[in-house]
Amino acid sequence: MDLPPTVSQKSYERILRKINLASREVADDSMKNAAKEEVSASGSNEICVSGDGCEKWPKSGHSYEEWKLKHQPHCVKNHIGSSSKMEVDGMKEIFQRSVPQRNAKYIKYIGDGDTKTFPELQRTAPYSKEKVECVGHMQKRMGARLRKLKTMNRGKKLSDGKSISGKNRLTDKFIDTITTYYGNAIRQNNSSISDMCQAIWAIYCHYSSTDEVPMHHFCPIGDTSWYKYQKAVATNSASLFKHKNIVPIAIIDEIKPIIAELSAPKLLKKCVGVKHKTLMSRSTRLFGGTAPKLLCGSSKNIVDIAVNEAIVMFNEGMTGRIKVMKALGFIIGHFTVTSDFKANYTRIKNAEIKSKSYTLEARRASRMRKKATNEHFAELEGPAYETGSF
Q1: What is the CA radius of gyration of the chain?
Q2: CA dihedral over 164, 165, 171, 174, signed as positive or negative
Q3: Which of 40, 50, 205, 349 gives 110 a disulfide partner, CB atoms 3.0 to 4.6 angstroms apart?
Q4: Per-residue pLDDT of the chain (390 residues; tens, 9 = 90+)
Q5: Residue 208 CA from chain centroid, whole number
Q6: How far apart are CA 261 and CA 303, in angstroms?
Q7: Collapsing DSSP states into helix, strand and coil, what is residue 284?
Q8: Rounded to 5 degrees, what are φ and ψ at 78?
Q9: Alpha-carbon span 197 to 199, nearest angstrom
Q10: DSSP string covering 95-153, please?
């Protein structure tokens, strides 16, 4: 085939540098505008931010070695130290430039607690701040603790002479249910520590209740209560109410210490007025979609462009790309503008649909059904995979 030669490496790098400069300019303006909007919305330049590090890339295997071989001659790393320390150093830089570049103070920091970021920020940042717990990570703690409990007691007999897992025991579905209820208890009562604590213990009492000993004193009362027993009490029909899905007392005794620990006022205090890191996760996904790991190491320009692209897309959607193209000197046509606005409209509509309660419940129910099915087959088939067991 008679094809012209491809772009030379030198020309390619020059193009990347130009795109990087243009996208960086637009991203900087986008971040400044976002900071102004947040300050304006809160009525103060003291605002809340969140931070998290990217997932580590395992330094083993063929793909890593192949990447390292190509990358080493052109490596332009700007961090000396472990990958875990990278998140700490990055957040320190962000806080130190908050006032001079954004005219804002990040007095509340949402972090997941898996690095020593916050202690370092307290030591080095130019103003005082407080750490706020992310509900999502608090919720994950409950799930992680219950799964650890299940793993540690595997093969052991509980006080009733039965194992911890199995039908109507501490199943994965039951763990997910408690975890979800725990997260909801915090989200729906995040203005009061006592209300959060009461809502969490309502979960324990709910599953401890029997027809003989109903324990629903923490549940909302009245005929508008979300729990049917309290509705029955309000309509004088409690004697006809029958409890379902009763959890054995042996299981309840095992999970009680975990609930007690994760409902401690000292811990819940960090959740008052809590916000979420969902938006942070979305921006990370945007970056990951723009620059997969195998491409990230090939050039710093590519990584910079991916970060700038994620910032612009996160703040302004597809229309932000028009600004990048204008900065590059492109002439923007009607169809480009129309296409980007349509993409933004579709994105917003899809987000609105996904945020509806009925779609959330449908997705949750689907996950529960899958877990129940998997547990059913696992119980029928017995252990099929376990490290070193066969």
Answers
A1: 26
A2: negative
A3: 50
A4: 687 888 888 898 899 999 999 999 999 999 999 999 989 988 888 888 887 766 555 566 666 777 777 777 777 777 777 777 888 888 888 888 888 988 898 888 887 666 678 888 888 878 888 887 778 888 888 999 999 999 898 888 888 888 888 878 888 888 988 998 898 888 888 888 998 998 899 888 888 887 777 787 777 777 766 677 777 778 887 777 777 767 888 998 999 999 999 999 988 888 887 655 555 555 556 655 665 554 555 578 888 898 899 899 888 888 899 999 999 999 999 999 999 999 989 988 888 887 776 777 777 778 777 877 876 777 677 666 655 555
A5: 30
A6: 42
A7: helix
A8: -120, 20
A9: 5
A10: HHTHHHHHS-EEEEEEE-SSSSHHHHHHHHSSS--EEEE-HHHHHHHHHHHHHHHHHHT
Amino acid at residue number 109: Y
Residue 104 corresponds to which tokens in the numbers above?
């804002």
The CA distance from 159 to 152, in Å, is: 15
Quote the pTM value.
0.66
Q: Report d(CA 327, CA 323) in Å as an integer.
A: 6
Distance CA 171, CA 161 (A): 17
The packing angle between helices 172-187 and 135-152, to 10°, is 150
The DSSP symbol for 67 reads: H
Distance in angstroms (rounded) separating the CA atoms of residues 155 and 171:
14
